[in-house]
Amino acid sequence: xxxPSDVINTRQHPFVGVTWPVTGSRGNDYYVRMYDSGFxxxxxxxxxxxHIRSVEDRILGKNIFKKSEKKPLHLRENSV
Length: 80
Ligand SMILES: [Zn+2]
Prior knowledge:
- This protein is α+β, with helices and mostly antiparallel strands.
- Helix content is about 20%, strand content about 20%.
- It has helices at about 50-60, 65-70, and strands at about 20-25, 30-35, 40.
- It binds zinc ion (ZN).
- Zinc ion binds near residues 30, 41, 43 and 49.
């Protein structure tokens, strides 16, 4: 069951259907998916879990992304 987000309006959001991998504190991988009605996570938590929160943070652009990943790659050959 999807958990409605407090911080992101997921209804008709362009990321609906996108799945984000989240590494949990014990090193397990979980998958958080955005639905029209909110987020769902593959972990067993029945409440909105920290994995979902971490994905919300990523979407909102807080911390998480390393700068090297965020920069688009430009091919220098094209600019000559
Ligand atoms: Zn979770």
